[in-house]
Amino acid sequence: MIYENLQYVKTQIEKSCKKAGRDIDEVTLIAVSKTKPIQMINEVIECNVFEFGENKVQELVEKYGQINHKVNWHLIGHLQTNKVKYIIDKVKLIHSVDSFKLAEEINKEAKKNNLIIDILIQVNIANEDTKYGIEENEVFELIEKIALLDNIRIKGLMTIAPFVENPEDNRKFFRNLNQLFVDIKSKNIDNVNMDILSMGMTNDYEVAIEEGSTMIRVGTGIFGERNYRI
Ligand SMILES: *Cc1c(COP(=O)(O)O)cnc(C)c1O
């Protein structure tokens, strides 16, 4: 089941890249394993996918200790400052930085551990009340401030698009975020590398890739529906 799901997702990635005239190597697939058991993660690893996304600190830490293979963990959910210390030495990339206060805490813990931590700035591109992330017009100012922190490296932007029936409805948001990404890149700010544009989930990753995504976060499309009650 997981093997077939992954084959399907990979085929769709290929199709979308072809449609947009992009190279498939430009798009990294993150398998979002939240709520899913270790045994399923191991099945994904057997299919040569080594990037995993979790949205809760405790779950990430538990799984980190139980997976024997070398994989990369991505924190994709809201991060509270008091929990930064638990994941600082375990994550490849933090996708969800949306305040200077959080960046300062990451910087402090990174320094303690002698690490440079890669982060993305989470943007609430559709201005939804229910979402974390900063508004589009605040992004540049926040990036300029975070860029001065020594133990953090800004690698790009991330967004969670609205839940929509028709993924085409999110195209405008993906396009806007890509435009912002390109604008910031063109400013060549010291200590800021705009390499990663993390956008697109099970429902809309094809459209996101067509609009320039370099990292898609797919949970349901790989692992099947989540049951939050277990
Ligand atoms: C759960 C989650 C995903 C994956 O969602 P699916 O719709 O299951 O693909 C992606 N990104 C974030 C931030 C998530 O919390």
List segments where confidence is low: pLDDT < 50 over at least 5 consecutive residues. Answer: none
What is the total tally of β strands?
8
Largest sheet: 8 strands, parallel
Instruction: Please estimate the helix content.
Output: 25-40%
Q: What small molecules accompany the polymer chains?
A: pyridoxal-5'-phosphate
Q: Roughly what is the average pLDDT, rounded to an integer?
A: 97
Q: Helix segment count?
A: 9
Structural class, please?
alpha/beta
The run of helices and strands is HEHEHEHEHEHEHEHEH
Strand order of the largest sheet: 7-6-5-4-3-2-1-8
Silhouette: globular
Strand content: 15-25%
Distance, first to last CA: 20 Å
Radius of gyration: 17 Å
Describe this structure in words.
The protein is of the alpha/beta class. Helix content is 39%, strand content 18%. The chain contains nine helices and eight strands. The chain has helices spanning 2-20, 38-46, 57-66, 84-87, 100-112, 139-146, 171-186, 205-210, 220-223, and strands spanning 28-32, 51-54, 72-75, 93-97, 117-122, 152-158, 192-198, 215-218. It has an eight-stranded parallel β-sheet with strand order 7-6-5-4-3-2-1-8. Helix 5 (100-112) links the parallel strand 4 and strand 5. The chain is globular. The mean pLDDT is 97. Residues 32, 34, 55, 76-77, 160, 201-203, 217-221 line the site of pyridoxal-5'-phosphate.
